[in-house]
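Contributing new records

If you add data, match the layout below exactly. Sequence lines come first and carry their own label; structure lines follow with theirs. Keep one chain per record. Anything else will be rejected by the validation script.
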Amino acid sequence: MKTKSLRIGTRGSKLALWQAEWIKTRLRESDPRLRVELVVIKTTGDMILDVPLAKVGGKGLFVKEIENALLENRIDLAVHSMKDVPILIPPDLSIGCVTKREDPFDALISRTGCGLSDLPTGAEIGTSSLRRQAQLLHFRPDFVMVPIRGNLDTRLRKLEEQGLDAIVLASAGLRRMGLADRITERIPIDICLPAIGQGVLAIETRVDRREVHEAVDFLNDPEAALLTQCERAFLGRLEGGCQVPIAAYGRLIDGDLEIEGMVASIDGKKLARQTKRGVVKEAEDLGVQLAETILSHGGDEILREIYDQNL
């Protein structure tokens, strides 16, 4: 059964709206008769801007209200940045598909055009991510990390207003918003591994809405789905919350699946990082195996210390 109309739930930031509009355009291209409407939903994460995410519930704050709208049939599908989607989602919902991955790397934007290595001693760097903070401090302990929240435009503005030396943002968001020219340096993954699923858009639907699944299925990118499955399995085994700097990056190499992951202390002084390579059909198992290896190579101790500090 074909559906005649779809309501897309989205956050109201410029980037979230761009992402939802992009999905809307693809759906209309697939079926010009389809009516597609955007429904903007204010999330808790959008309303609380003066407290670090780690202290108020984490990235799930960006999806909870949208998921409630799905469960109540006020929308037909939701568009999320995959890195914002918790591992556990309500049993009546599912990630219907994931899109082709945009650049998953982190991007440095500096006021003077200096790259990471050339920033002055004690450089102040703005970021809202403990993952970025830990890895950058591991690379250069002299950095001073400054927490900044807000949408992409707000954080770019804070670079100047707060006199920061640099800020770090996801390259994918900057590229989608036509701001790739603002990127000073695309941070190599040997310095900063990306967030789980960074660069991927997730389309969430109700399990019982088969016609919606059928309408969006063509958007699914098998490679992105495979790599995201592996990365999320890694995160799930570590039971990582927003208080823990965790990162992973999966990629296909010569027909095999390789995933690199890390767990770090918040100050970056301790960092456990490992790589696993295996066959594509065992993507989920590979993510779990990598997590087990990291736990046995210092990750378990790092996690215990972080959770003890947060008790």
